[in-house]
From TrEMBL:
Gene3D superfamilies assigned: 2.40.10.120
Species assigned in the record: Gemmata massiliana
Annotated signal sequence range: 1-20
Name of protein: Uncharacterized protein
Any one Pfam family match given in the protein's UniProt record, by short name: Trypsin_2
Keyword Hydrolase among record annotations: yes
InterPro entries: Peptidase_S1_PA, Peptidase_S1C
Residue span of region Disordered: 262-282
Length: 419
């Protein structure tokens, strides 16, 4: 028994070794679906600003749905009944230019350069939708395609928005469709007005926040299937989006289809011919400002007129140029505001003024800022200029206030000093 066993062992040792089996190659790592969708959709998504007057602003989100006609889709409740809006497209950084710059301050500090004026062109108040036609489409922005049909329950969805409570813009949120159905609901347009809506909607489990309104809801292919409307405050994990069918109904309106296609992102090589050859002459009869600060006014007016066809005028008085100073001083604040508003509007009409006009009176102490062509400036600039002046004047820092107004106006027209 030993000899056969030893022979078998010897044969096993002398036999050629079996070739080693190759290790299976690991499958290439696929990019996360959410990341891929985000990179497709973010270049179509905008931050929307709507100036409601009286220092009140509404902000939301929107999508570029027609690049040729320069149309941005958002909610009616984002723009309200205001005819003008300002939109911001995202900027990018990094080696391949894919990293979204998401800090709010980056955009507010560059509002003159990055803010794009637009006209609210079409409203669907019942479905809570609106179309803004913007003045230009920046290079690199892409049109968001519409999906062929509405989503089904259980389908994966993705949304991008600009939630006001977040420190970031262009925020991504994933979710699943719960159901698609017709819904009636009410919401506050502002402090005074409540509006009623009725539309086909998509209900999802993805959380939304104020500021996300108007943003895109897309499928895994990055196609638009809905528009963010809002979340249910009295329920968990329920958010509502206006369905694709309502969007198509708005875009297919004859008035929208008849819009002429413009050349996206093309800007005139030269500014239009100025309406006047020399800038209007400012005056400081109220003796508010020092020599050094005042010396900046004339060059600023000249630069704005020459490069941007925009007027800039500062006029200060000891007493208002029209009306009885004592009677004006005795007026209630609302009456005095109305008086100076009418005074400024008459002056603007008289001068055929197109730009930023600052009027200051010493007795009674009043200042008024008027922008005669607000569509050519970032939303709410007049209010910001007035606030800057008031803050400086209250501390008797008049030169500082004037300097702020000059710098903010130049920045708003893209003429600020590069830092």
């Amino acid at each position: 028994m030993r000899r056969p066993l030893c022979a078998l062992l010897l044969l096993a040792l002398l036999a050629p070794a079996a070739p080693a089996q190759p290790k299976p190659e690991s499958a290439p790592q696929q990019a996360d679906a959410g990341t891929s969708v985000y990179q497709k959709v973010v270049r179509s998504t905008v931050w929307v600003h709507s100036d409601r007057g009286g220092g009140k602003f509404a902000t939301g989100t929107g999508s570029l749905v027609d690049k040729g006609r320069r149309l941005v889709l958002t909610n009616y409740h984002v723009v309200g009944d205001v005819k003008a809006a300002t939109v911001y497209f995202p900027e990018f950084e990094g080696r391949e230019g894919k990293k979204t710059i998401s800090e709010r301050k980056y955009y507010t500090d560059r509002s003159g350069k990055l803010g794009i004026s637009g006209e609210v062109l079409e409203l669907d108040k019942q479905a809570d939708l609106a179309l803004i036609r913007i003045d230009r489409v920046p290079e690199g922005a892409t049109e968001l395609p519409l999906a062929p049909e509405s989503p089904d329950p259980g389908q994966s969805v993705h949304s991008i928005g600009n939630p006001g409570k977040s420190g970031a813009l262009w925020v991504y949120t994933p979710g699943k469709v719960r159901q698609v159905y017709t819904k009636k609901w009410k919401a506050k347009l502002d402090e005074r007005n409540t509006v009623s809506f009725e539309a086909k909607v998509i209900e999802t489990d993805s959380p939304t926040n104020p500021g996300d309104s108007g943003g895109p809801l897309v499928n895994d292919k990055g196609e638009l299937i809905g528009v963010t409307q809002g979340g249910a405050l009295d329920a968990q994990s329920i958010s509502i989006f206006v369905d694709l069918s309502e969007v198509k109904r708005l875009i297919n309106r004859r008035s929208v289809q008849l819009l002429r296609t413009g050349v996206a992102s093309q800007q005139p090589k030269d500014p239009p011919k100025a309406s006047r050859e020399k800038p209007l002459e400012s005056k400081d009869e109220g003796k508010f400002f020092g020599e050094a600060a005042w010396k900046r006014v004339a060059p600023t007016a000249e630069k704005l007129l020459k490069e941007k066809n925009t007027d800039f005028l500062v006029e200060t008085y000891m007493t208002p140029p029209k009306g009885d100073a004592d009677k004006i001083a005795a007026m209630k604040p609302a009456e005095r505001e109305k008086f100076f508003k009418e005074l400024v509007e008459a002056r603007v009409k008289e001068l055929k003024f197109q730009g930023v006009y600052v009027l200051v009176s010493k007795k009674p102490a009043t200042l008024y800022v008027e922008i005669s062509n607000p569509k050519d400036f970032p939303s709410g600039l007049a209010t910001k200029l007035k606030s800057a002046l008031l803050a400086s004047f209250k501390e008797s820092k008049f030169d500082e206030g004037l300097t702020k107004v000059i710098d903010m106006t130049l920045e708003a027209k893209g003429l600020g000093e590069k830092k």
